[in-house]
Each structure stands twice: as structure tokens, then as C-alpha cells.
Fold these 4 entries.
Entry 1:
Amino acid sequence: MNDLSRPAAPPPGPPLRLLQQIAAYRTTYCIRTAVELGIPAALQEGPRTAGELAERIGGKAELLARLLGHLVNEEIIGRDDAGRYLAVPTTRALVPGHPHSLVPWVRFELDPLHGRAWERLGEQIKSGTPAFELAHGSPFFSWLGQDEAAQARFDIQMRAIATALIGVAVRHIQFSAGETIVDVGGGDGSLLAELLRRNPGTSGVLYELPRATEALNPHFAELVQAGRARVQHGSFFDEIPSGGDAYVFSRILHDFDDKAAGRILANAKAATQGPERFIVVDIMVDPARGRPNETSQDLLMMVLMGGQERSAGEFSQLLAASGFKTASVTPTASPFHILEFRHPR
């Protein structure tokens, strides 16, 4: 048979996965809206109809039902045979105050400030200036210093991450009685409070930028009152306090490119004499595996602050360029690794 007589095969359609990736923002905003309306928390109290939920939030039942139907299809909430909506295990992660709540992450990641920054990603790639700065005319941390609401959202999200670190990473870090721990850029003191609690006889210094409102972790504030800790204000780009026995950089260096991170490390070297320990707690990517969550996180650092995620090898190269020597790298049962480095001897 002549091939010309055969009907032409239809052209292949667009890749389904690509279509799903393009449209993923729709579900993202449905999740954000559900959290804002308090739907997951309401369902924790028991099954509810769309009408009952709409009455509770002061909304229109027919519109809310369409939102809820999509969340059912995405397995974020459930629906029983009577048509009532109910909580499923995933729902609990969208309830404020739950031990594993992702609400701080929702509010931080989906902040409109960030959305406007992502719109400038192409310009960043051309110019090299962080997209957040292009969108808002100010570097990320400078903006937080003048926007109390944005600072509060950032602090809550950082506290949630610190809580995860406390449960996994902190157990791998030990200090001796009498040592002073300096937490460089330690936020509200959540991580330092737990390090001090787990290591009796130690004292701590929280080194942070001055803020319009000082909101410390309550446990850290208690340690300040007890005389085991204090707050020292300053920028690690200008100097790092001397006098510590151990310096912790938790999720700090990934905020910056190699040049800016090098300035921080140079100040650390200038402030110390040689026997001090330096500890990095950070995500360390595996370049051989190329996990989407890692490359996505790397882009977030780039867009917001011009930073980057690094592999353990890249951290070691960065440290070597600043005159330090990597002593050990310890993986944990989390995305975070613990890298300890020292002055060369």
C-alpha cells in the first residue's frame, strides 16, 4: 500500500506535565485563599457543608463550593457521602499552630511582595540585580527593616524553620560548659535558645540587625532575663563580635552570592584568634541528583536576595577562599547539613 494513502497521524498534543506546571499557580492561590478564610481550621472542628462554611466566613456558598471542590480534587481536604467537607491528614498542615503547620510558609512564600519580585526575574538575569530590589527599590533585608508586617511574616516563617532545625539538626551540635555561642544573624533567638537549653553552662550572644520592633522568642527572652544570653546589634557586613568560642551561621550564607558571603567570612576571620569553632547549618544540594525542590529553593534565594544554595563542596571552596578549612560535614534527617570549619593550623 502506498504510504500516501494512509491517514496522517495527528500531531502530538502539548506535554501534559508541562500544562500542569503552567497551571500550578491556580492551586497555589486556592490554598492561600483557604488559609486566609480559615477553612482548614474550621474543618478541624468537624465536617461542614459549603453553606455552613460560607455563613461562618460571610461568603457566598456557591462560589466557596467551587473552591472547596478543587481542594477536594487536589486531596487537600475531603468530602463525605453527604457532601460535607472534612479534614484529611494534609489539612492539618494548613492549620495555624499545628506542630507541623505550613501556614507560615504559605504566608511568606505567597506574599504579594514576592510575586512582584518574581515578575522581574528576566530583568535580573540580564542585569544581575536581585529581582526583589528591582521590583521594590530596596534590598530584601532593608525592606524588612521598614515594613513591620513583612518583618513579622518573615520572623514567623524563620521561627517555623528553626523549630524544624531544633527537632533534627541541633542534636548533632554539642558545646562544653563555659563556652560562649554567637548566633550570627540569628533572628529572634529561637535556635540559640535551644542550643543553650541543650548545653547547660553555656552562654549566648544573638547578633542581629536593629529592628523597629524587637520580638524575641519567649524562651530566648527568658534566657536573657536569666543572664545566660544577650542581644548585640550590628551588621555582619561591617563586623562580627569577638570573644565567642563558637560561631553559628544558620541559614545565613545561602542568602548571598560568593562575594557577599566572602565579606561575612572575612569579618569572622578578623574577629577571631584561631581556636574558635565555626558552624554552618544550611541546605547543601546534591548537584548530581538535580532535585526540583533544591533548584526551586536556589531560585528563591536568587530572586529575593541574590543568594544561592550550595553543595558541600561549594561551601568548602567558599571557605577555603576566605582562609578557612572545612573540618566536617554532617548530614541530618532533613534537608539541612551541618558543616564545621576552623582557622587552618
Entry 2:
Amino acid sequence: MTARVGYRRIYEEATPQDGKRVLVDRLWPRGVSKERADLDEWLRDVAPSTDLRRWYHHDPQRYDEFRCRYLAELEDPDHEAPLRRLRDMAAHDKVTLLTATKDVDHSEAAVLAQWLDGS
């Protein structure tokens, strides 16, 4: 049985309810030290490609298309190992996916959380 997968901004304080904290951004977030991030893992290889990230530019009107394109990218064999790692973590612990994005409900973290809860 898969544990619940959540997501939130990395700029928020870590809590015990986070479980495993996994950064899913390709770039390290500005102004966050590695100590303050309190990460269990940084899986930058599950992040959207640079081209997709630049195209999306966190425009909520493009979210549905971004989601479709990102899910298609996740089918690429390059994502197999990090996605397996995420699934394994979620099978044993609560996992919180972290992103620097201001609008977390329209982010790769939201897409990944939904994907993990459904897989």
C-alpha cells in the first residue's frame, strides 16, 4: 500500500509530518542552504526538461498542456531510475515533494504527487 504523497514549497519550515523530504526541482532554490532544506534526497532527474520548464514559465493557463507534456517526459527511460526511487520511498514512508515554485498546485511537484498516488 502506498503512503500518502504530498507537496509544498521548500521555503516552508520542515515538519515531522513531512516524512521523507525530496526536492524535485532541476535547479537548487535561491536562498536555501542545504542545512535549512533538511532534505532526504534531491531528485533533479525527475524535474521537467529545461525546454519544458522555460516554455511553461509557471503560467497557470498553460498548466494542462504542461501536465500532459511533463507526463510524456516521465515515460522517457532516463526517468526510470529516479521514478523507481520515488515509488520505493512512497511505498514505505510518507513523502513530501518540494519545489521552489510559488504556485505549488500548478507545479511539477503536484503532477508527480498525483502520478505517484495513482501508480
Entry 3:
Amino acid sequence: MAKTIMIVDDSASLRQVVSIALKGAGYDTIEACDGRDALSKLNGKVHLIISDVNMPNMDGISFLKEVKRHPGYKFTPVIMLTTESQAEKKAEGQAAGAKAWVVKPFQPQQMLAAVAKLVMP
């Protein structure tokens, strides 16, 4: 059975690029435009979340903290996919529970490698 990955980003084109790469690698995807939208769509088994940091309504770090409070998603790995490369932001993301930090622009293979490491078989 295919693993489901949630893509959270306010850029529709970026969500599409990530979704195409993931589907090509055999994953199912759910897309959300910001943290609030993503929380409303977390109702089934999501094996991994890829989230932007800077988004309207609810940013990626706030979203991550909310996800980690939810018993069903406490151990769901999260990859932050962002233009942010400062050490402080990375530290804030890791403290909130991010397992990986991929800086945009990114190579789809680089992201798929991170996904493969974090999605449990």
C-alpha cells in the first residue's frame, strides 16, 4: 500500500512540483495551502509531512507544534521545505520536532532521499 505524504505550502506551483516527484516515486499525496488548511485535512493516516515555514494564516513552525500535540501524529516525521537557511530557524524547527530541513530551491532527488529515510516501510 502506498504511503501518504502531506505537502503544506502556500505556493500551488511548488506543491505541484513536490507532488509530481512524490507520485513518481510511488507515494500518495495530500496538499494543503497553509498550516490551518493542513490541520483540517489531517484525518487519516499520514506517514510524513513536508511543510514550508513562511505561510499565511498559520506558519510551518506553529503548524508543526500543533501536529506534535496531536496523539495520532506525535511521531509523524516532518520535513521543513523552505527558503529559510538561518541556523536559528533550523534550531526552532528542530525544537518543534522537524526531522529534516531542505532549503529551496531543491533537487527533487534530494527531497526524495530525505523522504525515503524518514518514511517507515
Entry 4:
Amino acid sequence: MSNNQDNLENKLSDAKATASGMLTKNSHISATNMSAVEVAKTSSAKDVMLWLLAIAILIGATLVNQYLPGYWQPANDVWVRIGIIVALFVFALVCLALTHQGRAFKTLLKDAAVELRRVTWPSKDETFQYTWQVIVVIAIAGLFVWLLDNFFNWFVGLFIG
């Protein structure tokens, strides 16, 4: 068991080192060994401009369907409008990924993937057993609530008539 634990700890430390290495390659701020949270809290003029650009692009994407066909003839085709909306959405996501917060989010996703590999998932039999236990408990709770409802209806009916 300790051999497996040592192996998991080695994999986790390797993944953190790799993620840290990727972060330092992409960002001059993280070269000072900042955590992902500290990187996300930092801001620069470039970040502000990218956020404003992404917001403007997303607003524009919401207006494409309504206004673009009046100004551009090919936009009368629904697939052209869908393509433009998707392209604008992807461009906005790329802008957001280039911010410090976007880099920190990518690090968070990598760390989450490492943690998901460490999860011990239940077997098919355990899942089946737990599902039936939940169904039985829900049925008992439902029966109890139904009995209370009937009792209170009867009790209030005594006073109201």
C-alpha cells in the first residue's frame, strides 16, 4: 500500500512541477513562483484591454443575428450567422485565455485532472447497492411526508369543518 501511495505522491509532485513549468514558460509574473491564485489576482493594462475586448466581442455576438442581415447580404443565411457567432465566441475565449486569470484557470483545470485521477471510483456492484439504498430512503421520506400531510389536513379539517 505504501508503494502505491509513494507512486501517487511522485506522480502528483511531477504533475505540479510540470504545471509550474508550463506556467513559468507562459507568464513572466509566475517566474517568481506565484501560485495560481496569486497569478489570478494580479492584473495589468493588457488584461484590462483583453477583458474589455472580450466583453465587446460577446456583446457583438449577441447582436449579429438581429442587425447584421440588414447591413451584409450574405448574413441572411442562418449558417453564416451561426458561423460568425461561433467565431466571435471563440475569439472572445482566446482573448480571455491570454489574461492572467485565464492562465490561472488553465492551471486549475490541470490540477483538477490530476485530482480526478486520484479518485477511487465505486465498482458497478457498489453503485447498484448505493442506488437502491437512496431509492429506499427517498421512498421512506416520501411516505413520512405524505403521512404528515394527511395528518395536518385532517387536523386543520377539524377546526375549519
